[in-house]
Structures are given as structure tokens and as C-alpha cells.
């Protein structure tokens, strides 16, 4: 087995996150991939656990044989992918062409999963004398509501006996995402919620007899656009840029011949290091109350933004960068505007950073792919970093 062959196998096992849609079919959810991972770890002969997060969706955790007195590194990679509608390459074939592997998840993030699995396998078989204790977590539901990583962090924050592997915080979280072999040491988080306006329904032939909730929402959106412009003018984080706000979904009304008595929008508020994911909602609410002459409803968030700060990962990222430089000089520490599991691990008291093959520009695309050479280099980085992490400790 090598990383290329393994990646093709992983792509061929659909694990599509339905993203809240009422869809059915065997391509959805992580169950088949979860079983593959359990079989993989069982055949490797390591201790592993499959822990249910919500019905039918599990995190899988495995570890190398524990050694006293050395650091513990949590390597985390998510099992799910985004949907496949509109793809122009076969989503589940793992097609190899011109030095690339194509398919859903090739870049985000089954390429990293293949690299981590191969590095983990080598660590188990080689048992390097200076290796860290390595825990590999394969988490569910990253692409939608991050239930998997939240559940994982709770294993050490509030031990309940669900796990015998992850009962205390690791020393480092190394999260897999496509970073082009750079190291993400800081990133934004996202708070997402709905705002609702209400009106009075009536026949559309006499609209003045009702109150149009969509017209009211238009005023909300206009005010939010002004607020978003003000956010963009604020002081930016040196690595992540300024905070942002975007309205991404609008729904309302029942029929074109009825004046709508309800309307909702979905808001994405990107949170930079130093901001609180709930407080930013309060700021929006206060701004709208001061701006609008009517009432509206702020619905509870389904994701609360947690950002990743670079305040406590400097030593670890320096060590990782030195490993990368030995294989391919010229890489750097960066900040990015999107969010990852690293923020949740860091919130759990564990210094964290993000590293993996591929570019975010290929993630979620209609022809998603990953470069094979980069895939193999990332495997070597994961291995060398973990194999030498106890040196000098």
C-alpha cells in the first residue's frame, strides 16, 4: 500500500455530508468510510475506538503504542466531503491523470487522510526511538456543523469514559487541510445564524392590506451591507485580515399571489482572533436596532465562530517548518480567512496548527484534484515531524 493507492480507495468510498438537506442514498454520511478506517486500524494491530457522535455518525480514534515522557501529538483529519452535484469528473473513481488524482475529497481532505494514514502506519511499524505518542482522529461532520470535533475535544475537557485513548489533552494538534505545504498558524472562525422578519399576509391584488415581510428584510439587508463595509474598514489581523459579514441565503413567503408574512436570511460573520463569536452577533443586533424602525428576530446560531490565534503555536510551527524545509525549502507560516478544526482544538487548551497537501483553490470544485508529488511530500513531513518530535524533550 502507498498513499496514491490508498487515496484512490478513500475517494471510492463516498462520504458526502448532506449539508442539512433532506437527501437519501448510500453516498451520504460517513458510515462506509468509518467502517473502512476501523478495518484498517484493526489490520494494523493498533488500539482504536469508534465513538458515536450522533446516530449513524462516528469519530474514529487510533493511537501508536504509548510511551512515557514524550509529547502526544493529535493528528486530526475529517471524514466527510461536500456534495458532488455539478462535478465534471467522476466523483468516486479516484482517476489518475498527468500526475494528479481527481475525485470528490481528493484535495479536501482525503489526500491528507491518505498521507496521515500512511505516516501513522510507518510510525507503528518503524517505532522510531524519538517519536511522539501519536493519536490519529478521523472526525465526522466537518463540512456542516462541526459536531465531530466538538465531541472529540469534550473527551479530554469533560472525560466521561467514552474513550480510553483521549482522556487528557494532547500536547499539540496537527490538523489536516489543503495548505500547499505551508503552515496555517492563524485563521478566522465563522458565526452563522438567521434573522427573521414578520408581516401580515393578504391577497396580492390588494398588497396595502398586508405587511410585506420581504420588503422589511430588504431594509435589514441594506443595513447589513453598510455594517459589512464598516467591518472591512476595521483594523485587520496581520495574518487573517479584517472581519467580514455576508448574507448568503434568503427565503420567504408562500406563494407569488400572497403578500409574505415571513422572511429569513442566513448570515456568515467571519471572526478574527481576539473577537468573540457570540458578541459579534450582539453587535449586529444592536446595530440593526439603532438603524431600523421595526422589530426583527435573531435566531440562535448553529455555528459559533472560534478563530485560531498564533499566540501559542510558535515553537511547534518552527519545528514543523524545519522539517518541511528539508524536503522543499521556501514554505512559510500563514494566516487564512477560512476556518478549520484547529480552532476547536486550540479552544480546548491545545496549541494547534494546520498543514496538508493541495490548495484551497481546488477544494469543493467541479474537477477536484490533488498533485501526487505534493501528496507524497506531505506524508513524509507528517512522518518525519512525528518521528523526531521527542528529540531534545
From TrEMBL:
State one molecular function term (GO). metal ion binding
Please report the stretch or stretches of sequence annotated as the Peptidase M20 dimerisation domain.
185-293
Q: Which UniProt keywords apply?
A: Cobalt, Hydrolase, Metal-binding, Zinc
Which GO biological-process labels does this protein carry?
A: L-arginine biosynthetic process
Recorded E.C. number(s)?
A: 3.5.1.16
Pfam families hit by this protein: M20_dimer, Peptidase_M20
Report which superkingdom the organism of origin falls in.
Bacteria
Q: Which cofactor does it need?
A: Zn(2+); Co(2+)
Matches recorded under CDD domains? M20_ArgE
Describe the family membership recorded for this protein in Swiss-Prot or TrEMBL.
Belongs to the peptidase M20A family.
Q: Which PANTHER family match?
A: ACETYLORNITHINE DEACETYLASE, N-ACETYL-L-CITRULLINE DEACETYLASE
Q: Which NCBIfam families match?
A: DapE-ArgE (TIGR01910)
Output this protein's name. Acetylornithine deacetylase
